[in-house]
Fold this sequence. Notes:
With 148 residues, this protein is of the alpha+beta class. The chain has a single domain (3-141), classed as Sufe protein. Chain: A (Alpha-Beta Complex), CATH 3.90.1010.10. The protein is built from five helices and three strands. The chain has helices at 3-20, 69-82, 87-101, 108-111, 127-141, and strands spanning 33-38, 45-52, 58-66. A three-stranded antiparallel β-sheet has the order 1-2-3, with helices on one face. Strand 2 (45-52) and strand 3 (58-66) form a beta hairpin. The longest helix has 18 residues, at 3-20. The protein is globular and about 40 Å long.
Amino acid sequence: MAVADRYQSLYRDLVLAHAREPRHAAPVPPPYLRAEAHNMLCGDRVGISLKLDAYGRIVAIGHDGEGCVLCVASASLMCEHVLGSDRAAVMQAHVALQPMLQGDQGDDAVLGDLVALAGVAAYPSRRRCVLLPWEALLQALAPDAAAA
Length: 148
């Protein structure tokens, strides 16, 4: 088995593990920042709730909703990745994720376990499934987002 095949299998297993047992799969108790995103083409719907500390770092984050394996796994991996991050680090990860999903080499130092989602590059119609949780997260982190 080639090294690339082993990594592909490992990443596939990681995505499936996060889909089966998603981490942070519950809304954060109020007060929180919250946003939802919906993909009307496939029915995926995800909500992201989070709390920031005085320094703007994410100290609690959760996701809820209904979605396909890729959407749920992406939300779970994203929540794990951004916990403890500030807005700038979240934006850096989001920017690094975009080219990876188009087939370019991902920056492992920035993306960490998010590189497990790189296989989606072969399926352009599924990229939106991976990006939907990020859309909700960025809305929740927007400067004009109101706390609930």
